[in-house]
Amino acid sequence: MAPEWFYLLSPILALVAMVVVQAVFLRLRGGEQFFASVVAGFLAGLVVAIAMQVALLWVFPRNLDRWVLAFVANPAIYVMLAYCFFNFINLGHASIRIRIFKECHDRGGFITHEELRAVYDDERIRDVRLKRLLEGGDIVKEEGRWKLLNPRLVPVANLVFALKYFVLRRKSEFEKVS
Amino acid sequence: MIPVFISFVAFACSWLIHLVIWRVQFPNSQLKALLIIFLSTWVTAVVLSVFSVWANPGFIHFLYFSLIYWSAALCYVITYSAMEGDSPTLSLARYLHRMGDKGVLYEEIEEFFRQRPFIGARIRALVTDRILIEESGGYRLRSGKYLFFHTILLYRRVVFGPVSSGG
Q: Reduced to 3 states, what is the DSSP secondary structure of residue B139?
């Protein structure tokens, strides 16, 4: 194998490490601590990416121009692939569309309104999301009032809403701005 | 550094084309339109570059360009799918943040969700994307392989175990 290929393989191997470590971590924790598993996987991939970068300089010291390209491009590629992977697994975790598809598919490709209402309705979505935020320490219930405890999701939400307004010219799918 | 630069320029071009098209006319199937734009720009960049820039540095530069460009494109497509529809969790987090230290009553959260029928919106999106067909009494899944959906569900089964309903 030509040395060039090793430079290109580096972010792919880092992603493989992330996928494996995230899956093993989650399996060992019995499906709990989803976000911790993602962080653990990401850090494992980062270690592989850095190790590969050092190894490439050590093994192919004459290919300095390739190494500089890999030094700039590989971390960026790895972070982008990791972001894609995180969103991919998060779709299975939280996407309503994927869940509706599954319910319909499991029933042989047809789901009645009643069946859909029985497994999914907005009240259920509301309560599951509230429970998830409560268990994650994001919100708290004090004297009958629900409050935001940890604002870690707010910058993400603000970024998504700002992008939505800039690209789609609306603040929410439920209220058209223009 | 040429592949990094060309990837950046190609991605910027795709994004501007997407923005212009969206300003003129919203496509019905937005994700499909977005993927077509990214693919067309990639093909154009390859055709424009293949006889000039890549010729000397070699095939590896072409692969680097493709890897950087498609990683960025997929990141954007994923982010776009998140902003296309509102996330119940992020919407709620934003709402509670707006309400500050006084917080809200459960009834106010109920009202917040009543104004945002997420399930109906997602079903409409599945119908618009021609995945579900509305029939009397319910919804029929259009025939197709749905590899992307099945891959996500398979991954979830392998890692989490059986997928439960709700939430």
A: strand
The CA–CA distances, whole Å, from A165 to A151, B11, B12, B41 equal: 21, 21, 19, 25
Q: For chain A, give every domain's residue range.
A: 3-94, 98-135
pLDDT tens across B50-98, in order? Answer: 776 555 567 778 888 899 999 999 999 988 887 888 888 889 999 999 9
The answer, for A155 touching chain B at a CB cutoff of 8 Å, is no
> Which chain A residues have a beta carbon less than 8 Å from that of B115?
174
Going through A113-151 in order, the beta strands assigned E by DSSP cover 139-142, 145-148
The number of CA neighbours under 13 Å toward the Cβ of A56 is 26
Give the one of B75, B120, B126 whose C-beta lies nearest to A80's C-beta. B75
Tell me what pLDDT residue A177 has. Answer: 37
The pTM assigned to this predicted structure is: 0.79
Name the residue among B122, B132, B149 with its Cβ closest to that of A96: B122
Contacts of residue B22 in chain A, CB cutoff 8 Å? 167-168
Tell me the mean pLDDT in the region A17-27.
91
Cα of B74 to nearest chain A Cα, Å: 7
Residue type, A12: I
Q: Domain ranges in chain B?
A: 2-84, 86-116, 119-167
Predicted complex ipTM: 0.77
Does the CB of A81 have a partner CB in chain B at under 8 Å? yes
